[in-house]
Amino acid sequence: MDHLLSARALMGISLGFHIIYVAFGIGFPLLLLIAEGMALKTGNELYHRVARNWTRPIVVLFAIGAVSGTILSFELGLLWPVFMGFGGPMIGLAFWLEGFAFFTEAIFVSLYVYGERRLSRRALFLTTIPIAISSMISAVFVISANSWMNTPAGFDLVNGNAVHVNPWQAMKNPAWLHEALHGTLATYVASSFALAGVYAYHLLKGRNTPEHKAALSLALAVAGITVPLMLLTGDQSAMRVAVQQPAKLAAMEALPRTMEGAPLVIGGWLDPATNRVRYGVEIPKLLSFLAFRDPDARVLGLDAFPPKLRPDANIVHPFFDLMVASFFIMFAAMLWFWIARWRSKDVPANRLLLLAILAASPFGLLAQEFGWFVTEFGRQPWIARNIMLVAGGVTPRNVEWVLYLFVFVYFALTTGLLRLLLTPSPLKPGIPEQKEDY
Q1: What predicted TM-score, i.e. pTM, was given to this entire model?
Q2: Are 85 and 77 in contact (CB under 8 A)?
Q3: Distance between CA 59 and CA 208 in Å, rounded?
Q4: In angstroms, rounded to a whole number, what is the distance separating the alpha carbons of residues 310 and 385?
Q5: How far lies 391's CA from each of 4, 116, 280, in Å?
Q6: How far apart are CA 41 and CA 36, in angstroms?
Q7: Are 165 and 154 in contact (CB under 8 A)?
Q8: Whole-angstrom Cα distance, residue 31 to residue 24?
Q9: What is the pLDDT of residues 25-81, one digit of tens each?
Q10: Taking a C-beta distance cutoff of 8 angstroms, is the pair 79, 394 a contact?
């Protein structure tokens, strides 16, 4: 196996697993904050019991996410030493600050988990605030490093070397804001829908406890806010990509030729022999309108870029379509639930609806994976766009044996994670007595 292919495969597998762990690590704290806030505001112990039931998965996922993140930090130096030698001064600040956010989250997770018998209910709620904020900030810092690869900034390039480096400007690169907003919201959508699927499954099995109903409503309430926001931030992201990364947009939309009034293509396959999209559904002028708010706007196609510097539309375009389809699947299930709940004034017992929520529950995580594929494959063949090729940043050594070893490690981590999450807790039910004051 070629060393470049081995390095890309290992990094891709590592990030593919890490994205799932981190989605829960960022989304769960927000749900925890809301549940504890509801318990404090309403005085209803139901929400506190729901929150405490999440303690075990939060701790386990936090630990697994820390392990997989540590592995990734080693892989950056092991697999991409040339790239890190060049880009490290620009993206190092983001990873350094992310470390502070991570340790802040770890401290307050410990206080929340072990403070049940020692902290007042108000103090317990207050610990969830820095947990939610630090997990969100952690995501923002890491995304800034990835966005820098898409829109490098914060330095001058002189004879192939980065000089006059400004790490703050690098962190606030042109793609940072829209990627951070869209990426962070994606974790909230993914975790809330995954959790909704768990409770929909319990209700389908006849476990109609107040905790299960409250948790399902809470998860879909978060989804009810974040899913529409995903649509808005996704639209803004596409507009920024059209200006900042036109080659990626051309691959996302399978647009072979530069044209005015470009159509939006749903599905299909770009035939390299004829340079035409086959089997796709075209909506006239919609791409020009969505990208520039002008139905007659000129949109750059793949022909505007040298053949060796074009992303592969037959990889990027299907993943983009799958990401968008995932959104509409989740939106439909979420909307159906809230209409039914509004009509019945309670969590509906409609079996078909619960099956729809269960079926839609993995699509948040899938959408994250698809979106990441679009981002990374859409930047190819660059590791830092227009600055360094992927082939120029990789290690010259063969890392095939490391690939096989780490694949084993990730599957072992995931197997252990599933066993821990699916094994009933040995703790007896019940909430320990609280102190009134801290």
Answers
A1: 0.87
A2: no
A3: 26
A4: 12
A5: 7, 52, 33
A6: 9
A7: yes
A8: 10
A9: 888 889 999 999 988 888 888 888 888 888 888 888 887 877 778 778 888 888 888
A10: yes
